[in-house]
Design brief:
Layout lengths: L7 E5 L4 H12 L3 E6 L6 E3 H7 L7 E4 L14 H24 L8 E7 L6 E6 L10 H11 L9 E7 L1 E3 L4 H11 L4 E3 L8 E3 H13 L5 E5 L7 H11 L6 E3 L1 H8 L1 H8 L2 E3 L2 H6 L8 H9 L1
Parallel strand pairs: 1-2, 1-4, 2-3, 4-5, 5-7, 6-13, 7-11, 8-10, 9-12
The structure holds NADP nicotinamide-adenine-dinucleotide phosphate.
Pfam family, one: Epimerase
Protein name: Epimerase family protein sdr39u1-like
InterPro entries: DUF1731, Epimerase_deHydtase, NAD(P)-bd_dom_sf, SDR39U1
């Protein structure tokens, strides 16, 4: 269903873990793609090009999946690094929205889809959150999500706005699996703290499908939680991952170590969690190909 008649898609952060899989899938589905990157690369423009020349001609849709890796263990959580984290999300959205707002009305992209995170919702062991729940104001990361999302709002009604509030993305060549695989392979896979914290997650193929549906289906608008239907805890995830690799999983990393390495402000992403579901996906009839963590991990490890 390409009701919106989208042909050319501009993808900020298209070189990253999510962006590169999404770009490949878009190309496979017959879309023309152009990336925005900090580095000059083939088939791409830089942020400076965007500022100077605006949106490339014939752009029908814009996606933003750019963002400095928050959980880079080699980077200390300094004010400078936090500023990078904000700028790479909030300022990139602002820049994209500015150039979209400046487009002549016949050249305006039909849709702008940007990513955000489920860190928007306050960690809680019992509460179930969907897109109609409130949040976005309890700590640095949730406020970041609020600012990130606010910065993605385009003026007027010519450009449809979609925000995909994603859970942890599981895939082969990046994200949490790439970071954790060596440890699990060595039999050192460990739950974090008690392991009872919930871990909203989604398979990379499913998050890319949500983005593509958001481009072509006019009914997609506003916030959509990008999460698989199965709710798991960190302990269940750890045990499943280790079992599928035929490795033990009796170890645990004390929360204090995670807080020491990452600082308590970002450690919450690992030590706390929230139960997140997507009512909007249900309403829109989105099919999730990998609904359980066991099946998703089997697919990734095969
Ligand atoms: N992976 C997940 O589990 C997950 C879950 C929820 C939300 N998200 C969000 O989704 C986005 C993409 O995640 P990802 O895992 O694909 O990240 P990634 O692999 O680190 O890629 C993100 C891309 O963002 C660009 N980027 C990095 N630092 C930047 C900076 N300081 N300024 C401007 N651009 C910068 C880079 O593109 P260039 O080098 O080409 O400029 C990079 O390829 C991030 O905003 C992340 O917070 C990810």
């Amino acid at each position: 269903m390409n009701g919106a008649n989208i042909k050319k898609v501009l993808i900020a952060g298209g070189s990253g873990f999510i962006g590169s899989v999404l770009t490949k899938q878009l190309q496979k589905d017959g879309f023309e793609t152009c990336l925005i990157s900090r580095m000059p690369r083939p088939n791409s423009i830089t942020w400076d090009d965007l500022n100077q020349n605006g949106i490339p001609e014939r752009t029908d849709a814009v996606i933003n999946v750019a963002g400095q890796n928050v959980l880079d263990p080699t980077r200390r959580w300094t004010p400078g690094f936090k500023q990078n984290v904000i700028a790479s999300r909030v300022h990139t959205n602002q820049m994209l929205v500015n150039v979209i707002n400046q487009c002549d009305s016949h050249q305006k992209p039909k849709v702008f889809v940007s990513i955000s995170g489920v860190g928007y919702y306050r960690p809680d062991p019992n509460q179930i959150y969907d897109e109609y729940s409130t949040g976005g104001d309890h700590d640095f990361l949730s406020k970041l999500c609020t600012d990130w999302e606010k910065a993605s709002k385009v003026e007027g009604d010519q450009t449809r706005n979609v925000i995909v509030r994603s859970g942890i993305v599981l895939g082969k060549n990046g994200g949490i699996i790439q970071q954790m695989y060596p440890l699990f392979f060595l039999g050192l896979g460990s739950k974090i703290g008690s392991g009872t914290q919930h871990m909203p997650w989604i398979h990379i193929e499913d998050i890319c499908n949500i983005f593509i549906q958001a481009l072509i289906n006019d009914k997609f608008a506003g916030v959509i939680n990008g999460v698989a239907p199965e709710i798991v805890t960190n302990d269940q995830f750890t045990k499943t991952f280790a079992r599928l690799l035929w490795r033990p999983s009796f170890l645990f990393i004390p929360e204090q170590i995670i807080e020491f390495v990452f600082s308590s402000e970002r450690a919450v992403m690992m030590t706390r969690g929230q139960k997140v579901i997507s009512k909007r996906m249900e309403e829109l009839g989105v099919h999730i190909k990998h609904p359980t963590v066991e099946e998703a991990l089997k697919d990734i490890l095969k």
